[in-house]
Amino acid sequence: MSGRDLLGALAERVVVADGAMGTMLQTAGLDLDDFAGLEGCNEILNVTRPDVIRSIHDAYLAAGADAVETNTFGANWANLAEYGIADRIEELAAAGARLARDVADGWSTPDRPRWVLGAVGPGTKLPTLGHVDYRTLRDAYQRQTAGMLAGGIDAVLVETAQDLLQAKAAILGARRAMAAAGRAVPVIAHVTVETTGTMLLGSEIGAAVTALEPLGVDLLGLNCATGPAEMSEHLRHVSRHFRGAVSVMPNAGLPQLGPDGAVYPLGPADLAAALRGFVTDYGTRLVGGCCGTTPEHVRVLVAALDGVEPARRDPRREPGVASLYQSVAFRQDAGVLMVGERTNANGSKAFRDALLADRLDDCMEIARGQIRDGAHLLDLNVDYVARDGAGDMRVLAGRLATTSTLPIMLDSTEPAVIEAGLEMLGGRCVVNSVNFEDGEGPTSRFARMMPLIQEHGAAAVALTIDEEGQARTEESKVRVAERLITTLTEGWGMAVADIIVDPLTFPIGTGQEETRRDGLETIAALREIKRRWPDVQTTLGVSNVSFGLSPAGRQVLNSVFLHECVEAGLDSAIVHASKILPSSKIPDEQRQAALDLVYDRRREGFDPLQRFLEVFSGVSTASSK
Amino acid sequence: MPLEERLAARIVDGERTGLAEDLDEALRGKPALAIINEDLLAGMKTVGDLFGAGLMQLPFVLQSAEVMKAAVAHLEPHMEKTDSLGKGTIVMATVKGDVHDIGKNLVDIILTNNGYTVVNLGIKQPIATILDAAEQHGADVIGMSGLLVKSTVIMRENLEEMNARGLADRFPVVLGGAALTRGYVEGDLTDLFHGDVHYARDAFEGLRLMEALVAARRGEGSVPAAATPGSADAERRAERKARRERSLRIAEQRRATEQPTEDLPARSATATDNPVPTPPFWGNRVVKGIATAEYASLLDERATFLGQWGLRAARGGEGPSYEELVETEGRPRLRYWLDRLQTDGVLEAAVAYGYFPAVADGDDLVVLGDDGAGERERFTFPRQRRDVRLCLADYFRPRDTGETDVVALMVVTLGRRITGYANELFAADAYRDYLEVHGLGVQLTEALTEYWHRRVRGELVLPDGTPVGAADGPDAKAFFDLQFRGCRYGFGYPACPDLTQQEQLVRLLATERMGVTLSEEHQLDPEQSTSALISHHPEASYFNAR
To answer: Which CATH number goes with the domain that contains A541?
Structure first.
């Protein structure tokens, strides 16, 4: 049976997967010889005791399971390296998949196919905490999936994910294996939410949904750690916001530690009742068991689900990004999404000095300052001549990954720097930015940046720049925006809501003739872009508008310009949030002068720039702080 | 600015940068003890005056105290072992049965950093322990604190115990706490106690009392009845006493002329034909991992900034307005703390809640078995003796209607870590952080309570298909104005004052699954937890059942 059929079946009915493998192996009476001297290495049994593994698959299929999981949970880098057999990842994964395939095929009938889910576990190393680097993990997961594909799996099941960066490594490793093998199967991702209510490193379920869905996950859900009671709220969230199908495999209750190890309190009837509730309440389509569940649990579950109609879902995705901890929506109820601009080696001298002197704690303090100031996202830019940009990005993004609850906007013109950041952050990032400066040919920056954005499921800032340069007029800004949106959606499969168009801000206070209309052209372009693509996001580096003016004048002009842009439909702004004044705090005379300047209201005998400079001569900063 | 003035100014401004250098320079001119007494304490005195005049907010007072603490710590190696400020000693504690210690700890901070020796015994201290410590440390004063109404009774018992032990003359007592009133302390308790007992409204009144009491003990002055300016004279005290007696007399007269209870209706006229909604499930559930941003969006900013953090506008229009303080201090610090608490893994929000079939039986609410039969638990509520004769049970279908109602119960908690986290800040002399984290913890617990009450309203569906929550007001402000259908009653509040009734609630919800238990004193543990009984009745609102 092929994977396509699995998704087809899931669209029609509930599919029941098996229960625990480890629990069954513990009772199989295996000795050290069975493990070839590698005590506790369950994956070695795929070659030393295939009979035992077969019998377990057989027992679950006999109990009525539609799908079995391969005995490959630990066929990964961290686990097998501990036994000194990391070189056997692909071999043991293939062996495990072949066993399950063979047994499942024996049970399959044309009316009742049986599927094989390739189990991918987390290992014991957490990349977000620096235990292992992303690429090592990803490449090992690629080898594991390659083996399982060769062995005939119908889907990849990335389960027991505790660290979003580890989950990303597993999913993207699996995707690379599929691309190499020329055979794609569905990807199922299960995160593990601890009794604390978050994943091990503090991720809320919302962060997991936002981070994992763009990686091309077909089913999302939870497994392990707790019983169904503790999972309910998280599954509810997945059901309401994830657009693929929902899947769940709880333990047989919250494990209670006794003298003989963990004891799982939930009997078959209780587990079945809880899972049935997940089907009728949350529309869950794939159900099964994790630790402590047995063929008897599956038998009772299959009976309990007979004729049960899954709840209809109406999932609403909330476009946005995520840190390790939380999801942040692009659209903020109470105003504009503020992107902190101080963690920028080009924009903030304090940050650059701290970076050059390796004062990382000071860099983090600057990041925290942005949070205090009300930023929703942090723009992180480490580009500075003669520095190892990728190295700096690795260090800073790695620190921010756990230090900040705010998602990161990775800001660099260098694809290698962006990639370094993406490989340190398990949440969902924005990449700042792409444009058509040197076209979209194979060697263009655009063509080098986009595969990274696509693979990592990032959102992207798209600047209205093309081969002719920066778009200065409404017409050209909209034209380039259209080309960007079309290329990103049709060429690269991005959702319109994940594209953040930046129609560019230029200084309007320089006095040069050609800059006079830059403010109003940007505002007009914003309005037109939002009219034509209501779902697209927009952003501007607002502070640039006032470049060259006095500090007091800058603060007022930035604030007034931002206000006008928000009126025109601006969704987010890259600003120093605490330096923005509310309209009510700006004296009428100053606001009028700023508005005249923004809209270039020149007339006979009146120059708005001159007027603006007069109004602000001698005025000191009325900081809102 | 000359060095000595600069040192005092550093204390007032809470400015730590360059402090060590200034102190080292000062040490070349005079001994450490003199620097403390002449310069640093002068700064603290200014801080107290500014606070008293309403010109300085509590967070900045605490910042000053932090600098004071750091300065003294810097000077300590330069002091003789025998050097003591010798200003006096207070032994203080939160009284038996009460775990609330923010107020007591603020007094500790202010007294300590004004040169007094403070022996802080912690929470839930019986009088015997307090007295032993007072003897052992040669206390000049005993301080007792407590937030609960019950604690005011404990304080009275403690004073009686001191009378009985003949220790009333030996130790003057200062009392403080949210449920105390000046009238109660300066009236009832003063009459009862054979010694000297005083009420301290805040930490600075405590400081003034301490100064006066120690001076009196050392024969250097007399103690005013109250240390608050303007209320110090005996005349006012007599007037207050007269007023109190007058109101007691009126109450007695009213009771005498009241209708006898039997002539009053047994039950209020609350409707019994309101629609009963259907819950999504019967029984209880535990929910963890509620996204911080979701419930934090219901944070009552005003209660947090004004009530907990003390961000009050300066009196007389000098200095920043409340709105300015919110912008410059409140919101930035709030965002900072929400981020820190989350990245440090401090918030463990959890809810145990459930829906139960129930009927009213006189003054009782009877929780039935899940099949709608039998009696599972019984809550007993007080009924008003006059007015409309309301009782909480009236908001549920009476048993004799033959119909069954639904009651929602919930307990929410922010978990145990937030309290420990705050206490660590206190122990590390990060006073302002301590105040902010504690206060934010209290208000986040409230926000979580609001959030889950809203969830309950959304889950209860009326027979016409609309949820009870359809009547909710449009925004967060509407919540604080109680614009929604039904009402949420907390135990220990006027409509259901009896804390022991929480036993039934905790049993029904099996709250131990999320680590919440009841202490011997029927307080929820951990501290940042709340309990509630929710009625969906459209007439339900807060009332006083006395």
So the answer is: 3.20.20.20
